């Protein structure tokens, strides 16, 4: 149940380069740069509900079970099928344009998204 809770971004690295690589418009990148993303996670064993709340209250919720294919959605509204894996306490999933991992380290939620050599690392505190 380590992931369960409400998390708020406190630091991020590689934001601009990652967003540009994904083709996110400059004005959207600007709005989101200093936004404190809220992530709400509920966990019941291997079953998760993962919600991220973005600027302008845009919200994406993905519900998944570890090791089972599920329907997911990106913030841009793209729907895809994916399987979330748990490896060494890290959640791992491949989105259409990047690979994403999430882990709890030192009481913080650490999310890493990697597209080729470009990496976005977001650190969030429990609120």
From TrEMBL:
It is found in: Cytoplasm. One of its GO terms (molecular function) is bile acid binding. Signal peptide: none annotated. Its main location: cytoplasm. Keywords: Cytoplasm, Lipid-binding, Transport. GO terms for cellular component: cytoplasm. It holds the Pfam family Lipocalin_7. Belongs to the calycin superfamily. Fatty-acid binding protein (FABP) family. This is Fatty acid-binding protein, liver-type. It comes from Sander lucioperca. The gene is fabp6.
């Amino acid at each position: 149940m380590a992931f369960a809770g409400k998390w708020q971004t406190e630091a991020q690295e590689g934001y601009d380069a990652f967003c540009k690589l994904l083709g996110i418009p400059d004005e959207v990148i600007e709005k989101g740069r200093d936004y404190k993303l809220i992530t709400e996670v509920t966990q019941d064993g291997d079953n998760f509900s993962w919600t991220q709340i973005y600027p302008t209250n845009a919200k994406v919720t993905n519900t998944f079970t570890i090791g089972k294919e599920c329907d997911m959605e990106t913030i841009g509204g793209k729907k895809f099928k994916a399987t979330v894996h748990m490896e060494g306490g890290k959640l791992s999933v491949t989105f259409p344009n990047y690979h994403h991992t999430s882990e709890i380290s030192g009481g913080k939620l650490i999310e890493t998204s990697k597209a080729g050599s470009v990496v976005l690392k977001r650190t969030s505190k429990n609120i």
